[in-house]
Amino acid sequence: MHRYRFLLSVQWVILTLVAIALIPTMIRLGIWQHHRYEERTSRNNLVSSALHAKPVPVEQLSSPGHAVTRTEKYRTVTATGTFDTAREEVVRRRTNSDDEVGYHVLTPFVLSDGKVLLVNRGWIPADGAQTAFPKIPAPPAGRTTVTGRLMADETTAASGIKNVKDLPDRQIMLINSAQEAHRLGARVLGGYIEQIGPQTDSPEQISDPGSEDAPLNYAYMIQWWLFAAAVPFGWWSLVRREIRDREGAEEAEPTPQTPEETAPAAV
């Protein structure tokens, strides 16, 4: 076993400990990626199911004070009423499909029974210093029917967007039905909708939510577990190379000669 004594050196002890620590770490990273894969797959399935569900009247899924659930989010809903453009607002720092910064147009939609549905009519570009209320294309006048994707109230925790105060008049950072109910003094349905019909060129309507790349997490999971499996093979390859190098060096050393072998021959 003397050929393995070098494993007790400080350098090899450290290398071995690092290798031992890497294996469970990589296994845990693979497990985490597996959880992410399952979460994203579940979310994709929920979104796809909601988008393909039959449209229903919005008041079947929402009511004043209602918190939109995961299974209700992205459901296609319809509503009939009148746009209240006098009290519409814009939501700052929103981007379109080309990552251009602008506003989302949030217009109260008054239903037949007096309740209010918040309608995100889409995106318009920002113009100038964003201190004045922008010019907004008008929605259809009079009584109309809209279709949209039901969305949950926005929060800083969920979106990462800070709810800045003291903004210019009729400009907000987050869409929140409770805050809008207080501002409007009306019974506002929980959540809001992203309008998809009637279709308009301006505001630019928000595109369907894309699916999250769950297969990428699955690939990362396999990758981490392959790395974990490769660590002991890599460590053993280094050990074998070290043994070969040491044995080669020993064979290359000259053999000590005896005095008789080194004495000059007699004449």
TrEMBL record:
Major subcellular location class: membrane
What keywords are annotated for this sequence in UniProt?
Cell membrane, Membrane, Transmembrane, Transmembrane helix
Asked if Cell membrane is a keyword of the record, the answer is yes
What the entry lists under CDD domains is as follows:
SURF1
Provide the topology term for how it sits in the membrane.
Answer: Multi-pass membrane protein
Q: Where is this region: Disordered?
A: 247-267
Biased region (Low complexity) positions are 254-267
| Annotated compartments | Cell membrane; Membrane
Superkingdom: Bacteria
Pfam families annotated for this entry?
A: SURF1
Its Gene Ontology cellular component terms are: plasma membrane
Q: Name the protein family.
A: Belongs to the SURF1 family.
What protein am I looking at?
SURF1-like protein
